[in-house]
Amino acid sequence: MNLNPAEIYKKLKEHEHEMITELSHLVSHSSYTYAPDSVNLLQDYIAEQFKKVGAKVEYLSPGNALYGQHLKVEYGCGKEQILILAHMDTVYPEVNFSGNVLNIEENLLYGPGVYDMKGGVVQLLWSIRLIHKLGLKTKYRLCLIVNSDSEAGGITSRKYIENEAIKSKAVFVLESSHGPEGELKSQHRGSGRYKLKISGNAGHPSQYSPTTSAIQELSFQIQRLHSLSQPENRIVVNVGQVWGGDTVNTISPHATALIEMRFLNEEDGYRTEALILNAQPFTNCKVEINGDITRPSVRKNADTQRLMCMVRHLAEPLGIYFKEGVIGEASDGNYAAALGVPTLDGLGPVGGGAHSEREYITKESLLLRTALLILIMCNGE
To answer: Helices in 31-84 by DSSP H: which ranges?
Structure first.
């Protein structure tokens, strides 16, 4: 079969019901980052699907019991390699999923993790399936990494991503596209993660002293941390998790918070990090904080623009028209780009509501973006 965009889309349209059924299967099973057994269950499923089309599959150990295994898949042949990144983990804690949690409302598909990023995983599966079924040839050797700790910052998969990125001609990331028009991401914010621990003194509430309550100290620290955000400069500091205390009738002797910082300009990132780490107590409690920048920021460059032009050219016959690209959030692609490897993100479906109860993608974009991915794989860079 010739590499005809219209014909490829037509073939995918014939499999639309199967694609949505598979997406439902993935979405209906929790794959919370910190539930490795559940993540591994779906990674095993994905591995078996790739094996069926003759791909070489390798499990990559996270080296940390907190996280699930990562997958490395090799398909096609060629002297040069392109790397495609996806992740299976989501931010949704394990719950008792019962039945089909993928809700379909006309052209919209709703479900936990459907946008970030199980829709992208379905794209990956069906692109390889169709290439195999139609007897198409990839221009380059394909290396696919599906990791299981992206929502934790890719801390155990980073070395695998960097190892394959440095051997690759280009890197494509299947995080979902940006906004209702589905723009690609030509720049990325960097991110840092930090842990704040506060030690106070336990006591009876009737002998309450505000200077010894770890929770009260934490409340002051939260206000300080959030005040460091400068949205106009693309700097965001967010306290995402807090816990502390022993019982409701005890002055809290301890409290903890987890913090994330996002930035676009590298200097802003290091400056804000210094302010985060310079945590001074407001009361008589002891304050400890540690952490660092985990993902470097990615600025627009000539290599990114070259990839953008190539993808634009391939997308136009499908009726997809990209602009100049937008600023995206931190992703695993940051690691590849930081090595100087041309990297383009946002090739996943169009949708929204990431990390919320209304996470969704559009049905049509799932088909179109899968067709585009096939064109990228077979045309190369």
So the answer is: 36-52
How many Å apart are CA 7 and CA 5, to the nearest integer?
A: 5
The alpha carbon of 39 is separated from its chain's Cα centroid by a whole number of angstroms, namely 14
For 316, residues 6+ apart whose C-beta sits below 8 A from its C-beta are none
DSSP type of residue 90:
B
The one-character DSSP state at 236 is: E
| Contact by Cβ (8 Å): 197, 243 | no
245-279 confidence digits (pLDDT tens): 999 999 999 999 999 999 999 999 999 999 999 99
pLDDT for res 64? 96
Of 160, 139, 141, 140, nearest to 67 by C-alpha is 160
pTM recorded for the entire structure: 0.90
Residue with tokens 């299967």, as numbered in its chain:
25
Q: Which domains does the chain have, with CATH numbers?
A: 5-189+297-379 (3.40.630.10), 190-295 (3.30.70.360)
Bridge-based pairing state of the strands 103-105 and 236-244? unpaired
> Of 265, 374, 279, 380, which is closest to residue 318 (Cα–Cα)?
374
CA distance 214 to 260: 21
3-state DSSP assignment of residue 98: coil
State the DSSP code for 230.
B
* CA 269 – CA 194 distance, rounded (Å): 13
The stretches in the chain having pLDDT less than 70 are 1-2, 95-100, 207-210, 380-381
Q: For the packed helices 363-379 and 119-134, what is the interaxial angle rounded to 10 degrees?
A: 50
